[in-house]
Amino acid sequence: MWTIRRLAAVAVTALLTAGLPVIPAAGRPPTADVRRITVAHWRPAPGGLQAAGWLESAPLTAGDIVMVGADWGGDPDVEVQVRGRVQGGWGGWRPLRLPSDEHHPDPGTGEAARERPGPSEPVWLGRLDDLQLRLRGAGPRDVTLHAVELAGGDGVHYLPPELRSVPAAQAAPAQPQVVPRSSWDPRNQCRPQEPPSYAPDVRFAYVHHTASTNSYGRSEGPAQVLSFCLYHVNTRGWDDLGYNALVDRYGYVYEGRAGGLSEPVIGAHAAGFNGGSFGVAMIGNFESSPPTAEGTQALRGLLAWKLDHHHVDPHGTTTEISGGGGTNKIAKDDVVTLPTILGHRDTGTTACPGGYLYQYVTGSLRQDVAAAGAPKLYGGPQAPRRAEEQPVIGERPHWDVRATRAGEWQLEIRDRGGQMVRSSNGAGDSIDLRWDLRDRRGQEVAPGTYQATLRMLGQDATPLATAFHVTPAAERRSGDERIATAVALSRWAFDEPRRTERGFPVTETVVIASSEVYADALVASPLAGSFGSPVLLTGGATLHPDAAEEIDRLGATEALIVGGEARLTEQIEQDLQQRTTIETTRRFAGPTRYDTAARVAWEIVRREGPDEALLALGDHPDPSRGFPDALSAGAFGATFDLPVLLVQRDQLPEPTRWALANRPSGGGSASGPWADRLTVFGGTAAVSPDVEMAASHAADGAPTGRFAGATRYDTSRLAAQDQLRRWGEAPQDPQSYSKGLETVLATGQNWPDALGAGAAADQRGAVFLLVAPTTLVDSAPARDWLQEHAAALVHAVAAGGTKAVSDGVLREVEAILRSDGPNRDPPETWGLADGPFALPSAPRGRAGGA
């Protein structure tokens, strides 16, 4: 089936070893933490080691230390080793290796930005009396030891309920018995730092090893998983444990990264290829010894279930686009065909998963996985999903499925109420069907949720069950007033039921702006873009109930308030902390709108390190002319994490000049210009050439450019066109799942709806465009842009009610979207994707209709 998509050596162990009896059930979990220890004093190593340049530390009391890594500045010419002592006997020296360049989050992600690359891979020690370091290289230096401690309770011998018996045999591909996070971390001490991220589906699986010891007791598996997690989060700076699952030598399977083992959670195990892959690590080192029979049996059972759950052929291939990173074997943006089960070394410059385990991966593993629990269905639409996760926007659902055993099949499509909408039957081992989004009478189905189930009759193959949300080409997201509209846009753009069902926030941060005046609110969208947050509006003396309800739905814990207390009162700040899930608030405000914009800009510069600043008019005697270009700039800034600074027509405000001339540093001090280029939104009637020149001078001569048109709609169109150009120059993340081009339309005659629209467009990866409220004829540049891109456009959302964007404008937009591209009526209808329509009375065969 072809598809196109897109820690380090054996250490000393505790007394328990393989073959010893299971420790009786224990029920007192330890407390866990990572402690940093500076080792600054070294002495010559004894004997011939001194001549070889080795230095060693004095023995350190291990106490509760069970795993260690170290940071010596990342110098590859320095060797650092560790050993441990148990009951008076020292074990052998084991190297602390610099981290593999491929055991990382994907480049360009927030997790990668938070990563600390210096610390070595960790070494599992188990319970020790003492430990000691030695080094060789560029002379004595400070080495920071990162020590995972498990103290109190039953320590490394805490036994979760799942380990108090031998793993139960499962009828593959049923889900194997799993040790959940709540069992190996019952105190929730390795809490994910950020909510999990999800790929659209799982297309392939990586096999890893942890490159740690093979000699550990049955009760030490959970302690190792907890220690790996703490090290990955506290020391490496990752959001969570890097692997999706782990398997120990006794055949126990452990849930890894949070978010749901059955879901396509994006891990940090294979840089450039994390999205769409499932990473399972066998606990141990298999460079010089093979895995146990129990371990390999658990591995193939886990993969048999996981790949069957996502309907992936273990013998198949997948075509992927590399996200790059480290010394990845495959350069960024290169297209490569990969087997659906592979070893980490297949894409990374690493020995993982060790020679012995890799032989099994390339030998009989795929056959073993394929044979488990046959028959199966391979293909798509893949994996049971919720409607919100698999919208039908412009494209027709297409089943390209192969059954491992021929027989009769049936596809049924039902509406939300369970009523049959369309069905088809056939026989054979190949199903190739496309739904034209019409019911059995040939009428186009209404927008809504539809459940499709494809099953083999008389067989126990896992059915393909997919929920589709049929979306109109053009639709409206609005409330009865501006605050409710901002909430409606947030609900549309920030919708992740898989997170909320597992207790994770949809987003941790919200941006709060005034619903009454645009002075400070104009820079809310780029701030929201940097934090991946919605813009919510409120006004009056207290927090609006609609905004409070949406914050609780999102599960946000931080609120960023843009504007002073004259419009966003101190009571609103108190309401956020007392009436919602918000725990902390930060206010960005100054004596003028230009001060506020500068403070927001500095926050974005601190977070994102951009090399470009956007300039837009922030005030005008005619209020209706003081915001339109800034709205386009705000949405553009949200998309590309660029700050927006406000200017006056004939004068560069001092706060804006200062923000351009100084880079923020720790503590708020300044350290010189940061922008290498400036982009002005609006023509010379909005921002004069003198202001443009003054801004360039403040930024140390940075070159300038303009999005300048005769009208606000021209300026918006130029920004939209450049957005596509920049996306073309820098391909979107390999984990993106684009079904075509999407646009968010906001009125160019009012400002509140457009604030939430800019943040929503960023979250959806859509293009922001200003339109006239009554007819597209009044915003001809927007109409021309829509017509120019009709072949790619699949969906348009109007922000606000009919006074903001009329029903007439929506009808005009829908007509354009239906004139070309995927929204046109397809030539094929229900039946074979490449064949004729099958009448209800047609004989039963490869495809039929009803």
Question: How would you portray this structure in words?
Answer:
- With 850 residues, this protein is of the alpha/beta class.
- Helices cover 24% and strands 24% of the residues.
- Strand 15 (245-247) and strand 16 (253-255) form a beta hairpin.
- Helix 9 (524-531) packs parallel to helix 13 (628-640) and helix 13 packs parallel to helix 16 (712-729).
- The protein is globular, with a radius of gyration of 29 Å.
Major sheet: size, sense and barrel closure?
Answer: 7 strands, antiparallel
Q: Tally of extended strands?
A: 39
Number of helices: 19
The overall pLDDT, averaged over residues, is 87
End-to-end separation: 28 Å
Helix/strand layout:
Blueprint: E1 4-5, E2 31-39, E3 43-44, H1 48-51, E4 55-56, E5 60-61, E6 65-71, E7 79-86, E8 89-90, E9 94-96, H2 110-114, E10 123-124, E11 130-136, E12 143-151, E13 178-179, H3 181-184, E14 204-209, H4 220-235, E15 245-247, E16 253-255, E17 277-282, H5 293-309, E18 317-321, E19 335-339, E20 341-343, H6 355-371, E21 377-380, E22 391-392, E23 398-415, E24 420-434, E25 448-456, E26 464-470, E27 474-477, H7 482-493, H8 497-500, E28 509-514, H9 524-531, E29 535-538, H10 545-554, E30 558-562, H11 570-579, E31 584-588, H12 593-608, E32 612-617, H13 628-640, E33 644-647, H14 654-661, E34 677-681, H15 689-698, E35 704-707, H16 712-729, E36 741-747, H17 752-764, E37 767-771, H18 780-788, E38 793-799, H19 807-818, E39 831-832
Parallel strand pairs: 1-18, 13-16, 14-17, 14-20, 15-17, 22-26, 27-38, 28-29, 28-30, 30-31, 32-33, 32-34, 34-35, 36-37, 36-38
Antiparallel strand pairs: 2-12, 3-4, 4-11, 5-11, 6-10, 6-12, 7-8, 7-9, 7-11, 15-16, 18-19, 21-23, 23-24, 23-25, 24-39, 25-26
